[in-house]
Amino acid sequence: MNKLIAEFIGTAVLVLIGCGAAVLGGDAIGQVGIAFAFGLAIVAMAYAIGPISGCHINPAVSLALYIDGRMDLVSMIQHWVAQFAGALVGALILWAIVGSNASLGQNGWGPGYLGEYSMLAALIFEVVFTAIFVVVILGSTGERAAPHFAGLAIGLTLVAIHLVGIQVTGVSVNPARSFGPAILVGGDALAQLWLFIVAPLVGGALGGLLYRFKILKA
């Protein structure tokens, strides 16, 4: 239960800080600031709850760990429930602060959304960059990884991913992160949510398979 509570809190914090930076401070801090908000939230949670749950706070990461044999199916599903619930609570807290008519940092694509990239571009970005993110996570937490530096490596990778992709999709690489805001905002965010669930899970699975078949294992 401690693991699930940790995953719930960690995912809520990720949404609250990352999406909160985009909504409450985006005009002042810009894309670089938003990117660092997401990355620093991961760093903070990695050291806060990492020893308890591993700080997945991302269903795609839990899937990759399951594929690599580091967790069982029941534990993965329990983590998913905690992560999606935490993301929704984080979005609810942000919604209570900014009001029901405001943006909540939801993901998207197409006309009217940031760089107005196509659905195909969004799909490719989310699959490829989730796979990259998962590879860093699995590698930096592996048996031969440098101790105590995983949180920093993972957080900085998320910063880099946001620097590349904010204009494309707002950056999900995490189905739970997309789920919370989309459920409350509705409209296009909810209609497009499927991509931000499917694509990161596909990317997570690809990253997990690279380790499952020892292609990237030392």
Automatic annotation (TrEMBL):
Origin superkingdom: Bacteria
Pfam family, one: MIP
This protein's UniProt keywords: Cell membrane, Membrane, Transmembrane, Transmembrane helix, Transport
GO cellular component terms, A-Z: plasma membrane
TM regions (residue ranges): 35-67, 79-97, 117-138, 150-173, 193-213
Principal location class: membrane
Localization (cell): Cell membrane
Membrane topology, record value: Multi-pass membrane protein
One term of GO molecular function: water channel activity
Keyword DNA-binding part of the UniProt annotation: no
Coiled coil: none
Keyword field contains Membrane: yes
Residues annotated as signal peptide: none
Membership in a protein family: Belongs to the MIP/aquaporin (TC 1.A.8) family.
Full protein name: Aquaporin
Organism of derivation: Devosia ginsengisoli
